[in-house]
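Summary of Year 1 activities. Much of the first year was spent building the evaluation harness for sequence design. The harness presents a backbone, in tokenized form, and records the residue chosen at every position. We chose the following record to illustrate the format because it has been used consistently in internal testing since the harness was completed.
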């Protein structure tokens, strides 16, 4: 019924709004006619990680936000229809992606997050030999470890990584540059290298007692792996107001916290979370403390008792373009808490400095073809996102476009390593 509501627009705005440019009317039309395999194939043509994107994409801001039925009616549920087609394909283990004849060319991909998997899969379908080197025990990057299970269960992330392997991609796990992976060896062995290394750890807040604050990404990871290490407090405070912070607050609330409070030093107008995520989390019963800046952790015998904060006012814009918070003298107060989680962004990729790559605002700088300052070394995903917001779907598109550029480049090369 939902597929039949689609108007199948010519030059559809939903397709233009999708960063990977999935032919939305085409895949929905095939659902309407009962051709679910054809629908999934249409999605794979543009996006090899269509199942993940169907779950985690901010569709309200992208395809569904551009739907012509959205102005006076209800937009088509494009994300749910895409998930339906993808789940159909995976549940039946359909082989829908053609692989070209072997070219004899080899490419290394560092990191198996969305950008890395996308790049590897696109290169494999063009006949190249691809090896992904992943530093952790499971493939998938943030899709596996850093996206709340409510949006993407662990199994959904791993099934896509397995699909990329079935295209002929080799994934070597527990392989990390500088530990058991040599950079010069990789450059000699492969015709090109694609860096999909994401970002680093949550930055330090440099406040007293910070060692008692939990890292938000680790908090999400523990909730997904269900390894027995997950402990949720009764009164939980989450520092930050981005999408990761909202995920942490949601986890705490749904896993039994009586009180969950999100603390942010600016107002709701400056928060980086999507508007629909903000509305969602408010319905979960989570409290917000805006214009509130943490200055220390109150603890007794190593146990968190509260978060000491000060009120803030907003001054002139800072480097981010948002009004900078200014502490209000004499406004100190304490929020009761037995668990504090921080989700205040991530450090820039430290690998850039180690490899001597040119950077832009701390991110790896690339050309229009995703090539770094080192020839035949390409990069994509969050590690290059100096402009615009980082997202899974943008990382997937980076990987796809980089694969096209790498394919073109290496098919022109003579035999040998990245030095040609």
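For this record, the design step produced the sequence shown next.
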């Amino acid at each position: 019924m939902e597929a039949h509501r689609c108007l199948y627009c010519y030059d559809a705005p939903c397709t233009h709004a999708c960063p990977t440019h999935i032919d939305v009317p085409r895949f929905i039309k095939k659902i309407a006619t009962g051709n679910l395999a054809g629908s999934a194939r249409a999605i794979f043509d543009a996006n090899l990680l269509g199942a993940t994107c169907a779950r985690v994409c901010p569709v309200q801001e992208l395809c569904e936000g551009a739907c012509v039925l959205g102005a006076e009616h209800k937009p088509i549920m494009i994300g749910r229809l895409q998930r339906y087609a993808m789940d159909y394909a995976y549940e039946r283990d359909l082989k829908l992606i053609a692989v070209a004849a072997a070219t004899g060319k080899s490419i290394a991909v560092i990191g198996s997050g969305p950008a890395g998997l996308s790049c590897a899969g696109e290169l494999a379908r063009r006949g190249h030999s691809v090896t992904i080197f992943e530093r952790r025990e499971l493939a998938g990057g943030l899709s596996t470890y850093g996206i709340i299970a409510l949006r993407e269960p662990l199994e959904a992330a791993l099934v896509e990584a397995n699909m990329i392997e079935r295209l002929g991609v080799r994934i070597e796990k527990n392989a990390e540059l500088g530990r058991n992976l040599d950079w010069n060896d990789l450059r000699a062995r492969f015709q090109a290298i694609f860096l999909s290394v994401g970002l680093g750890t949550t930055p330090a807040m440099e406040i007293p007692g910070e060692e008692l604050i939990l890292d938000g990404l680790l908090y999400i990871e523990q909730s997904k792996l269900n390894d027995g290490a997950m402990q949720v407090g009764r009164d939980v405070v989450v520092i930050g107001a981005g999408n990761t912070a909202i995920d942490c607050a949601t986890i705490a609330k749904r896993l039994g916290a009586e009180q969950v409070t999100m603390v942010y030093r600016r107002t709701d107008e400056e928060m980086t979370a999507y508007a629909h995520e903000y509305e969602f989390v408010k319905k979960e019963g989570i409290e917000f403390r805006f214009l509130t800046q943490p200055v220390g952790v109150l603890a007794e015998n190593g146990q968190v008792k509260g978060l000491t904060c000060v009120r803030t006012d907003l001054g002139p814009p800072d480097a981010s373009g948002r009004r900078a918070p200014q502490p209000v003298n004499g406004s100190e107060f304490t929020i009761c808490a037995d668990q504090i989680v921080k989700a205040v962004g991530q450090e820039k990729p430290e690998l850039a400095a180690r490899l001597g790559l040119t950077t832009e605002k701390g991110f790896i700088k690339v050309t229009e073809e995703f090539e770094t300052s080192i020839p035949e070394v390409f990069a994509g995903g969050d590690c290059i996102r100096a402009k615009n917001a980082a997202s899974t779907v943008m990382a997937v598109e980076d990987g796809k476009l980089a694969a096209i550029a790498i394919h073109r480049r290496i098919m022109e090369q003579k035999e040998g390593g990245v030095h040609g």
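The chain has three domains: 2-91, 106-200+347-410, 210-342. Quantitative recovery figures across the full test set are reported in Table 2.
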